[in-house]
Amino acid sequence: MSKVVDRSRDLGPFIPHNDDELIICRCEEITKGEIRKAVRDGMYNLTEIKRYLRTGMGLCQGQTCSRFVRSIVAKELGLSPVELDLTSARSPARPIEMQTYSNEVW
Amino acid sequence: MKRYELIVIGAGPAGLSAAIEAASWGMKVIVFDENALPGGQLFKQIHKFFGSKKHHAKIRGFRIGETLLKEAEESGVEVRLKATVMGIFANKEITVMNGDHIEHFKGDNIIVATGASENMITFPGWTMPGVIGAGAAQTLMNLHGIKPGNKVLMVGSGNVGLVVSFQLQQAGCKVVAIIDASPKIGGYGVHAAKVARTGIPFYLSHTIVRTAGEDCVSGAIIAEVDSHWQVIEGTQKELEVDTICLAVGLSPMSQLARLTGCDMFDAVEKGGLVPRCNEYGETSIPGLFCAGDVAGIEEASSAMIQGRISGLAVAKRSGYILANEFLMRFVSFQESLSQLRGGMFGIEKKGCVVTQTDEGLPLSRTLLQKGYIAEAEIELFSGSKKCKAKGVHPVIECTQNIPCNPCQDACRQGCIIVGDQITSLPIVTDTEKCSGCGMCIISCPGQAIFLVDDDYTEDSSAISFPYEFLPLPKAGDMGMALDRSGQEICPAEIVKVRTGKGMDETAIVTMKVPSEFANKSRFCAIYTES
Amino acid sequence: MRIKEHPILHAFAKGVSVPFFLDGKILEGCEGEPIAAALRAVGVMTHRHTSRFDQPRGIFCAIGRCTDCVMVVDGKPNVRTCITPLSAGMKIQTQYGVSAKEV
Prior knowledge:
The complex is a heterotrimer of chains A (106), B (530) and C (103). By secondary structure, chain A is mostly helical. Chain A has helices at 32-40, 46-53, 65-77, 98-102; strands at 23-25, 30-31, 104-105. The model of chain A has no long low-confidence stretch (mean pLDDT 93). With 103 residues, chain C is mostly beta strands. In chain C, strand 8 (95-96) and strand 9 form a beta hairpin.
């Protein structure tokens, strides 16, 4: 279960790492450094990170990167990845064109 | 809206088994799968499965898939392909994408059997064309007949990495190396040994630092890591490869299960976030079940039994089975499942350091560190003991407790015994009776059985071993015998090659080597054709 | 890159050979096989260039999950080539961002 993170806690200054340019979200091309910075900008859970950076909001909907994002954010916050709730699972579960999605047959 | 007594999501081993079981009790069942072909990942598995007869042991994965499909058809299961389930809503209603429209279905019961997705690792260049998942390699070569690349680096030494490496070699690709950040090989020793003897080197405690190449992969820079997984400076080396294949584990594909709102939990031993299920696979929502990898990463063989159990439980829930009938069948499925979960790689042993076998023998360290067993180590195991004064006898290089016993059933002379506990190591008993038929060689899913004839001629021995590559050698061909690490050790002459319909594409090659190399020679490289 | 003979699977059941176009160039593939397989068979590695960093991408998962192999197929962008069957005369274009390069 998600741990409540104290938002007034000082995480200290952003210290650049030499792998900050590594691409984490392949679809939206979001780097590790951007995710780490976002945490310091006040994005303390995965939903906030997602809305702030668009990680996991591209075509694949986070198939590959959601694990990585979770562990990077957890590390920045000094948590274990399992202490961070995943973003909500929602339909549609796969990429679909709006035209198809709205064409419902009962 | 169409209504079914059972909706199964996923036509892989778990989903199909669940559907077959429920339909066999008279239920009206429909299975949806997003793929164009049913069977999940089974049709990409061209190796023989482990287990016992009731687990379809020694049968190749794709043939198990064919059997399942036939059973599904015979039991009246409706299978809808290219039908992607988009969502699960309240009261077990689902939406399915079918071509250009969305259809609604309602199930009295739903079994989610969506399987797993591949884990990946990040490194500079990991998005470059030429870096692929191990599943992608299997899909391209085993389903579509396309080589994923010519020179491949395999990242990951678990069973997937080992099996796919072997399959890449079978497809005609060269596997340049298998690396793993762990200091120990993760998969079965027999899988490691069968790739090691073809000459593929293992680099353990190694990681990939970055790719080389501009537009696509032209190489991989690897380096040794210390016990904290940090790269040790100065150990970098470049391997010339055009493909980097990632086989670094699987995660349950639980998105659909999650959006039902059932209780979920994170479990390292299950590979990630999974629904909380009871022993029948039923989640916190009555009538909603999960079976197979979506409920925790295991093997296809256990997924099939889990599917059966969930299908059976659904039939009971809907009033198709009497309680005592249910119980008898459930207990037998459970026994079968616990057999597969036994042994040193079983789910209960995950994370434990195992140093000796159930029999109290020390595990081979070279097998864990280099992928092959040292000659001095193999002599401790009773499967390799020479128990015959003269002539041909089996040598079984199976040294870890894994759930597998087809060798016992294969020997009509009764020379090989595994016993009731299918994870026990095979024992070669009375080899005076060994006729050299080679059925044990063919039956071993780990390709760990050899026939050795120390008295082939006065100063030469004959070694028979399984061979699943092309071109197939012919009697009279000359080559070099390879030892367990794939090193050339002595000249060898191919004296016999056995193939046949009942042999399921495994050839038995017999080579003649000087007697002093009999205990070392386990494979061959052919140079001159006769 | 096609496997001619396989020790376990022998020959592969493939559709007839059909022509298709990649960025205007004529190529051959087997009807019904995934576009991505046909491209890999003739040695094409790059399917698209990304919009932000203009980096090349190709096949990654090969089962329609990762969406890295998307291309412009018969004028339609973001088509997952690993799960879209090839048909005769298909016009396939390398995707740049979300569209093909203007010719």
